[in-house]
Write a sequence for this structure.
């Protein structure tokens, strides 16, 4: 399952500090039983929620666990909670593992309106919301080479994101 967190940062003057906090937060998440991988992204074009994190999880029940609530839940985001807007947390089924998006690739997040087909035979892995906010019913993920990504900028219902770091894995 995929736990997708998306947001905008309102205090961009503190971006470097927030980035450092979020990397530490990823490691905290990865210490929780049932969380297996994490990777962060930023859109390469203007959107309402330019930051996205994908976390690979076993089930929505993780978010009710004492380990998650004590170490990584929304109450553990400290001052950053007030510095985020358009913040959505969804758990999706239909894709078992988060994609490993290399620095020379881009992640496409596709809204499910009509389950659109992307040009050039780009395959989309479709997911259904099964937990947390359920702010959207369906979403798709695709990975494309950086050189091809520009073709998707401006496509309605598609966000193009670059990785902010490597896909991290738990030691569990």
């Amino acid at each position: 399952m995929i736990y997708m967190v998306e947001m905008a940062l309102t205090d961009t003057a503190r971006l470097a500090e927030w980035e450092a906090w979020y990397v530490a937060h990823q490691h905290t998440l990865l210490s929780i039983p049932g969380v297996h991988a994490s990777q962060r992204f930023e859109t390469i074009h203007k959107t309402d929620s330019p930051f996205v994190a994908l976390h690979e999880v076993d089930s929505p029940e993780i978010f009710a666990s004492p380990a998650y609530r004590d170490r990584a839940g929304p109450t553990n985001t400290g001052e950053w909670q007030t510095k985020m807007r358009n913040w959505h947390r969804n758990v999706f089924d239909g894709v078992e593992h988060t994609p490993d998006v290399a620095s020379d690739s881009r992640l496409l997040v596709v809204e499910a309106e009509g389950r659109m087909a992307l040009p050039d035979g780009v395959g989309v892995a479709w997911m259904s919301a099964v937990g947390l906010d359920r702010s959207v019913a369906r979403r798709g993920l695709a990975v494309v080479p950086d050189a091809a990504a520009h073709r998707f900028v401006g496509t309605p219902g598609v966000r193009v994101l670059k990785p902010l770091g490597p896909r991290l894995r738990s030691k569990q």
Remarks:
- The chain has a mean pLDDT of 91.
- The chain has three helices and nine strands.
